[in-house]
Amino acid sequence: MRTNHEIDYKIYGEELQFVEIELDPQETAVAESGAFMMMDNGIEMQTIFGDGSQQQTGGLLGKIFSAGKRLLVGESLFMTAFTNTGQGKKRVSFAAPYTGKIITFDLQQLGGKIIAQKDAFLCAAKGVSIGIEFQMRLGTGIFGGEGFIMEKLEGDGLAFAHAGGYVIERDLQPGEILKVDTGCVVAYTAGVDFDIEFIRGVKNWMFGGEGLFLAKLQGPGKVWLQSLPISRLAGRIMQYGGSNRKEEGSLLGGLGNLLDGRE
Fold first, then answer.
1. Which of 81, 125, 128, 207 has the fewest CB atoms within 10 Å, measured from its CB?
2. CATH number of 8-228, picked from 3.60.160.10, 3.40.50.1370, 3.30.70.100, 3.40.50.740
3. Is the pTM of this model over 0.90?
4. What is the rounded CA–CA span in Å between residue 48 and residue 16?
5. DSSP state of 200
6. How far apart are CA 244 and CA 196, in angstroms?
């Protein structure tokens, strides 16, 4: 038996997805501000302090402390709860913020805990706790791509996250190591050891264009990786959409822009 609310869902779309959650009477889903897309008549929308989980029932100071931790991962103190107050099943939908895939985490099947990048969470069944996870290793916190603080999802309900581009799930065996770009790590289960590794070779880190460090994930556990981190997408937009390109002002640079379609 789950202690969190039990919800049904369906994910629509390919590259720009949204998740439709079906609520029985008195069932509730919680979401970050700005994720809401549409809902049936009979669903009541209410702004709540924190995530509405059981971890926030220990008095006013406990609620303030628990909700305040969300500020450290760039989230708001408040979330929005959507409750079916009508008769029969009702549906509410939440949309992804940019092109990519929505990931479904069944926390009951994943050991009750998922650690995710700071901006990955989209929505969840009421009762799921959305907190923070500190990276205890100094090197991982500084160079791991997500800083010292990541997001922690705990409970036994369903939670949904969003990642950029294509998302792949890998099941790591005990001792198995996977090395990836630091920005491509979306989430992993509690049993996975997350560390960073320095890229060897002067030529590699001076001219390779991949940075100085790789993320090293060691099993056992599941990891979710994205092919297009939002930081990489934003960097390309800045590179090609800016007005101060290096080649501007030169004859050859202008000719190159014409040939590759930039002008």
1. 207
2. 3.60.160.10
3. no
4. 28
5. P
6. 34
